[in-house]
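Annex B.
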Amino acid sequence: MSKPQRITVLGATGSIGLSTLDVIARHPDRYQVFALSGFSRLDELLALCVKHRPQCVVVPDAAGAQRMQAGLRAAGLAAEVLVGEEGLCQVAADPSVDAVMAAIVGAAGLRPTLAAVEAGKKVLLANKEALVMSGALFMEAVRRSGALLLPIDSEHNAIFQCLPRDFSPGLGRVGVRRILLTASGGPFRETPLAQLEQVTPEQACAHPNWSMGRKISVDSASMMNKGLELIEACWLFDARPHQVEVVVHRQSVIHSMVDYVDGSVLAQMGNPDMRTPIAHALSWPERIDSGVAPLDLFAVGRLDFEAPDELRFPCLRLARQAAEAGNSAPTMLNAANEVAVAAFLERRIRYPEIARMIEDVVSLEPVVALDALDAVFAADTRARELAGQWLNRHGR
Ligand code: NAD
Ligand code: MG
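1-deoxy-D-xylulose 5-phosphate reductoisomerase: predicted structure tokens.
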């Protein structure tokens, strides 16, 4: 038997991080944890170190490092403690690492994810914001380094499973007509529009089918998540925005589909549990047990489909416009959305103001080409400044 693959889990304390560790723990002969990172929940991170015994652990700052070192010592562990973004990039690119789970939320994950890409790792991409904000440069880095980029987002993982093994000649050349990106519609699919002014962060985070971190839960409620996923799909599968159609499918059993020119539509189905795409990407091209229960189609009973309502979900329209504009537009959209979601979670703005803030911010700046990472961060910073000003004018 070959030796276990060494895995770095960036964002280990989050929803995806924990699911990843659950799958890894089922296969100690195949996988071994090399490094774990956390940000605010350091007690949980220490408990994960006790369980998974990584060689390295990354914390946000010096105070966190002191606490972590004391905790590790008390537990009789000798893991090396690294700090901040530099530490994250180091454990992502370490020569002894085979695969990196990129599961930090938001723009904070860009540099560490890129470090893994540039080191030519197998990169399991959950952190969609990293790809959305730096698409062209990110994919160029993948090509240059020969990194293996595998999608964790359930929709993109499904699409990947429904495409031929080598789709790099282009979707048209492999006979694909459209990608059908499924969306649950989130908790507000049927809420009367007038009531959306009053919905709370708790309601937005109560997703009907998936259990996820708070930021992506709000994105799912607004369908900005689907918008970011549309942009993500364009980069991962070399598709144009008009080739990606969003289909609301409230059961979340079909995770996405590929429509071929001969009329075949291939779908990937399963229970809504992220351990399936995680196990798929970890072991690809093999298959391993993920701990997910078999799909009970009789219990599911029926599968419904409907077109998304862009009046109800303006974020979807904004994301499609950004996908079509390209260049700095998705970067600005993503940054404005991060500020808007954080403000909504802090109750500084109402739910419908998420879309209003984003629309105002992205319409204020001309779209510019992003030819280097500095330009990406400049666009990100500019959008955050504009969003901050918007908040000062309209927020509570
Ligand atoms: P989460 O909030 O549960 O976890 C986020 C992780 O990132 C935590 O470990 C946290 O410590 C870390 N983190 C947060 N801010 C950080 C910072 N500034 N620097 C370093 N680390 C930081 O989020 P999640 O639901 O696990 O989502 C993670 C990523 O995966 C997101 O990009 C999300 O869009 C994507 N994703 C999640 C799901 C899901 O089901 N949860 C599905 C598809 C894609
Ligand atoms: Mg998804």
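Residues 47 and 71 are 9 Å apart (CA to CA). The chain has a mean pLDDT of 97. Further annotation is deferred to the next reporting cycle.
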